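Because discrete structure vocabularies remain unfamiliar, we turn briefly to a single example record, giving the amino acid sequence and backbone structure tokens:
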Amino acid sequence: MAVRAGRGGPRRRRRTGGPRHIGEVDLRGRILRSAEAALVSLEKDDPGTLAGVFIIHGPETYYHSRLIRAIRRRTVEPAFEAFNYTVFEHGGASLDAVRSAVLTPPVMAPHRLVVVRDPEELVGERRGGTTETGGGAGSGQDGQDGEEPGRGGDAAAGSSGGSSRAEAVRRWASFLGEVPPGCRLVLSLSRDLPASSPLLKAGAGLEPPADVIRCFPATARSAEVWVRKLAGELGGSIDPDASQALVMRSGQDLAVLERELEKLITYVGPGNRIRAEDVASAATASAEANVFELVDLVGHRRSHDAVAKLRRLLEQGEPALRLMAMVVRQVRLVFITREMVEGGAEVREIEKRLKLPTWVVRGYLSQARNFDRAQLIEMMRSLAAMDLEVKSGRREPEAALELFILRYGSRL
């Protein structure tokens, strides 16, 4: 049995000579790597040495779950899990409680594992659950528009939480140096950390350095590639146009896509390829896909069908304000697409501007043909007025959306 480090045992040493630049990758690939690269090594059965501290950050919580499962499998024997595996979640993840768990010696094993998910001191109000069985909220059809990486976690200290948040980050960063050799600590943050984060600098300064893993949000392109790869891992196969259709229909949340893919493999039966018509028949449409269809119905002047779709979405629990925001975004992207086409832009130029794959852009091109420029401008002005009415309390969002659909789906 390996010698265990107790409360009085040695602590994890900090590097001499100061931490490396966060963008570097050391010989063991531990300074900063993507979730995909980390999973390749962590899910192998080889007994390679693991880091003592893991910092997993970024909004794609599906990867957080898989990474934690892989680290858990490599660290904790099932027979001693009750003694050597501790999980802290959000409000229950106080630094004092985590420190106590980290400094507790492992039982009949060389290591214990402590997982800390979204400690409230570091992330403030939680945006969504991070569980071992599912992912977070989806990112929309493209996952790009309006989003700027690296603006979460302690980056928000100046605007949310102020000096107290910054001080909490410094305390947690200092704590990383206290983790003893007999413990592996996983810090899972569902927000991006900037390169200047004290947590990342402290992790890079440990010996051995922390394994820093960034979980990038999936884009339409990366989700499509991922679907084809996962289909093979699950023992199935999927046509390229079917993988496109699945991402278009079910969104980019990888946990949702995994569930839909498992369902489709069962639907088509062993040995059969998943085709686009199978996706249309069996896959569940995301809210984004439904809004795309809703705007399409408005463009084809099928206002009653559009209102019926809106009511179904509301009955399914989709928040009216979220639907309203998605309609605004959809109309804006259709307008941008139409403007670029009229300016002589090629499809590839539109893809680059919108950061969307060809098959998504073609959908917007199709919708752009349903409206002229004046109609789209009028629709955007109407949506802006609707937003003001809703925010001022003069109209309920559900009623505002129905009125918008009836107005533009009937008379344009």
Q: What stands out?
A: The longest strand covers residues 183-189.
